[in-house]
Amino acid sequence: MCSCLKLFSFLCPQDQFDNLEKYTQWGIEFVERYTKFVKERSEIELSYAKQIRNLSKKYQPKKNSREEEEYKYTSCRAFLMTLNELNDYAGQHEVIAESLSSQIISELTRYIQELKAERKAHFHDGRRAQQHIENSWKQLESSKRRFERDCKEADRAQHYFDKMDADINVTKADVEKAKQQAQMRHQIADDSKNEYLAYLQKFNKDQHEHYYTLIPHIFQRIQEMEERRIERIGESMRCYAEVERKVLPIVSKCLDGMTKAAESIEPKMDTKQVVETFKSGFEPPGDVEFEDYSVSMKRAVSESSFLNARGESRRRSRSKLWPLIKRNKVKTQTGAS
Amino acid sequence: MCSCLKLFSFLCPQDQFDNLEKYTQWGIEFVERYTKFVKERSEIELSYAKQIRNLSKKYQPKKNSREEEEYKYTSCRAFLMTLNELNDYAGQHEVIAESLSSQIISELTRYIQELKAERKAHFHDGRRAQQHIENSWKQLESSKRRFERDCKEADRAQHYFDKMDADINVTKADVEKAKQQAQMRHQIADDSKNEYLAYLQKFNKDQHEHYYTLIPHIFQRIQEMEERRIERIGESMRCYAEVERKVLPIVSKCLDGMTKAAESIEPKMDTKQVVETFKSGFEPPGDVEFEDYSVSMKRAVSESSFLNARGESRRRSRSKLWPLIKRNKVKTQTGAS
């Protein structure tokens, strides 16, 4: 403290209060500028988090939709897991925004008010000290003027007495009157000399106190205020980095989650799912048998019923055979049989 | 492979090609949807990086401005360092965006084209196989019809011959003619029977090949295509997390830089700077001496010159004394002396 007292006391007060007022004003504006900077950063983090959340939401499967049942596939589930991790990731950037706002922005905003009040007080004290020494000087000046004037009066009275005393045509009474007048003037000059001396002592005492005690103390308090302000900015800047460093481990957990999701994908499982979904259970049809119409010669009666039976079985086997045939085509075929 | 061949060969082809077409189409759309998702994420990262860069730029000191010379203070330099680290931090999010775009988006976009082409080829083969077995069936059907018709013809000719043979009023020649006719019809029926048998064999061979070789192979290739697709999505998802994990160490270096910047702040250094800037070098004025106007009595001549001298020194000492006096006030004071 005494060191900085020494430092700041090197400042001659002449015009330095004005400079210090400008400097400390700038100091407050610097804190305000930094606070604004952190505020804008926090807003960027919020909007980033919002966009990421929306992205995650946008690609979530719609409830009770075809999409939802797609999540029987490991690849779809992995995507869903990624989206959920992404949502947590967004949450971490919200944490950054909230911490910046609660640990820096609101703190500094409050602090700036304290700082303004303290600064005002110091310069108020400074002005009062200046006012005091100024008044003390005025008193000294006027008492000096009075002394000067009274000396002139006394001088004039002395001259007049000497003149009368040297004049032989003047009555003793007049000489006596002039003598008393001169003595009275000398008495008045002596009195205002003492008053002037008293004010001179007072002023020199005040001036010494002003330069060696009052002003240095004010400067010291301003310097302490400044050093606290700079200290405070430093803490905020440290906190600014800390806030984000705190979320890094959680962010990297989210990334691990995404990697785990990706590794949980099992292509064979998914294709097995497809088979489970689509397999009809049909067995491939066996060979078509020979139909010997030659044995049916002369047995036209049984023939027709036999043909119908074949027609049946044929239609069944056919419908098994042409999965890709257009429906109407199958109709004509069936109709043909 | 044979296991998945077994799996997919459980699928009876009936309508399964249609289902597989739908499923594989959905598979392609899933890759497209994922690609779109990564694209949107990359755009979010870019705009975030842009905002952060602008923020850093906005608070940089204006070149050749009063701001710039403020950077003699450690607190201002620390802020500048924070801004530079923040700029690098933005750069890392640009790296994320670029990696997503080069390692996932463009890769998958190209891959989707390959996938579409391969899928088209498989279903083309499928349809061709179906077409082939269909034609084989048609040949079988018509040859069977022909055989059936020829048997009826032979039957009719046989009945006619028997009728003629039993009729005593018919000439031998007519009987012989009917007999030859019947024999010829039988011969034709035998021929179309052999043709029918040949087509039957061919069809059964085709059908067996269709169900036990062609279709299973197509299904297998489709399944392999699907498994490659799912594998590919998995790789992309792994890459998606990796891209961001890679920048984390650099991000945390940026944060270390910000912390170092904050710790580089030295309040006492900065206040020392202030003193260096503002100190006037003036020494506090000494005591004001007594001016004895009484000794100047009767020495009016020298008096005036003496007074002027005092007036000088007074004006100097005064201007030292009232830093806070309004300029005009100083004027009047000076004028007064």
TrEMBL record, chains A, B:
One Pfam match, by short name?
A: FCH
Q: Can you name one GO molecular function term for this protein? A: lipid binding
Q: Which UniProt keywords apply?
A: Coiled coil, Lipid-binding
Its protein name is: F-BAR domain-containing protein
Q: Which residues form the F-BAR domain?
A: 3-270
Give the highest taxon in the source lineage. Answer: Eukaryota
Recorded hits in PROSITE patterns, A to Z, give:
F_BAR
Q: Which InterPro entries match?
A: AH/BAR_dom_sf, F_BAR_dom, FCH_dom
